[in-house]
From TrEMBL:
Sequence ranges assigned to domain Peptidase M50 in this UniProt record: 8-342
Gene Ontology terms describing biological process: proteolysis
Alphabetically ordered keywords of this record: Hydrolase, Membrane, Metalloprotease, Protease, Transmembrane, Transmembrane helix, Zinc
Species annotation: Candidatus Roizmanbacteria bacterium GW2011_GWA1_41_13
Taxonomic placement: Bacteria, Candidatus Roizmaniibacteriota
Protein name, per record: Membrane-associated zinc metalloprotease
PANTHER family: MEMBRANE METALLOPROTEASE ARASP2, CHLOROPLASTIC-RELATED (PTHR42837:SF2), REGULATOR OF SIGMA-E PROTEASE RSEP (PTHR42837)
GO cellular component: membrane
Signal peptide: none
């Protein structure tokens, strides 16, 4: 449990640092003063000022923030000192870069991690039939089939060779010769071998005639030049699936059907981290990539208090040339934050209900 909590904390720290570092460096690039770089949400637990920026730890461990000079000023006309370094004083395109920098960094992190995994080897569909395992004391186990064997053909009792291109081929052809000795042609460690096996007509429950588990997945490693393109393709697949799931999950939560919601809060994500940890480093890296992409997608939504909500106001200003009154914009962001915290509470309750229900 402790290791899972520490792992979750490290992953969260990475995601927060990457996201907020995007805002931080983009603001510096645009000449905007950064007043605070915070981990977690206020109230503040600890802070230290380095240069002109306070680096703080806050009590609510649900993210982080970068507080920019003049970002939420209700009365910008009262800002006299270093006015040129205030967020509101910058042009719309400059503010847009700062607002999208966090999302961009999360997207790039997810892309980088996925691309890295593609260089280490990923399972992809193929036209091969690979042995994944055998049931104890089954005909396949007694015949000596081992994990990694590729089944390429089945030779009937009368000598007829039937090619095996899929698991369906193997099942249908095996069922033709129940309780009869057949020969399987295999590729093992690059060499072709043959083994004899007698498929059962009455196998134990949960086992097939031969008691063999097969798959069409093979491991493929991509080169450093191939991996980024394949990684980007996979990132967009994740975005597509996530975008479809976010809307339906929020709708279920709002209609009190939280038990059906697929979205997870801190507790749910912590559980996923624990499960991924048991599968090894690659699973943790993949989960971190998915979480980073999810964070980018959620933050870009045009909802008050999120980066996308703030960006929406800037875009409207850039198109119309008119800026909303700072007071109203501040109020909308505050309302948005309250709604987001409410959704977080609902998601957390949903996680607890799912856990207690088993």
């Amino acid at each position: 449990m402790i290791i899972t909590i520490l792992t979750f904390a490290i992953i969260l720290l990475i995601l927060v640092v990457i996201h907020e570092a995007g805002h931080f460096f983009a603001a510096k690039l645009m000449g905007i003063k950064v007043e605070e770089f915070g981990f977690g949400l206020p109230p503040r637990a600890w802070g230290k000022k380095v240069g002109e920026t306070i680096y703080s730890l806050n009590w609510l461990p649900i993210g982080g923030f970068v507080r920019l000079y003049g970002e939420d000023t209700v009365h910008p006309e009262n800002v006299k000192k270093e006015r040129s370094r205030a967020f509101f004083a910058k042009k719309p395109w400059q503010r847009s870069i700062v607002l999208t920098a966090g999302v961009t960094m999360n997207f790039l992190l997810g892309w980088f991690l996925i691309s890295y995994l593609f260089t280490q080897g990923v399972l992809i569909p193929s036209d091969k039939v690979i042995v994944e395992g055998t049931a104890e004391n089954s005909p396949a186990a007694l015949a000596g089939l081992t994990v990694g064997d590729e089944i390429i053909s089945l030779i009937s009792p009368k000598g007829e060779k039937l090619m095996i291109d899929s698991s369906e081929d193997l099942i249908s052809n095996t069922n033709k010769f129940l309780d009869q000795e057949i020969t399987l042609e295999l590729v093992r460690d690059g060499s072709r071998i043959e083994v004899s096996v007698t498929p059962r007509s009455t196998p134990p429950k949960g086992e097939g005639a031969m008691g063999v588990i097969v798959s069409n997945l093979v491991e493929k490693k991509y080169s450093l030049t191939e991996a980024p393109a394949k990684g980007l393709e996979h990132v967009f697949e994740i975005i597509k699936l996530t975008a479809g799931g976010i809307g339906s999950s929020i709708a279920k939560l709002l209609t009190l059907r939280g038990g059906d919601a697929e979205i997870a809060g801190p507790l749910g994500i912590g559980k996923l981290v624990g499960e991924a940890r048991r599968f090894g480093l690659s699973a943790l890296v993949e989960l971190t990539a998915i979480l980073s992409i999810n964070l980018a997608l959620i933050n870009v939504l045009p909802f008050p208090a999120l980066d996308g909500g703030r960006l929406a106001f800037v875009i409207v200003e850039g198109v119309t040339g008119k800026k909303m009154k700072p007071q109203w914009e501040t109020y909308l962001h505050q309302i948005g934050m309250i709604i987001l915290l409410g959704l977080l509470l609902m998601v957390t309750i949903n996680d607890i209900l799912r856990f207690t229900a088993g």
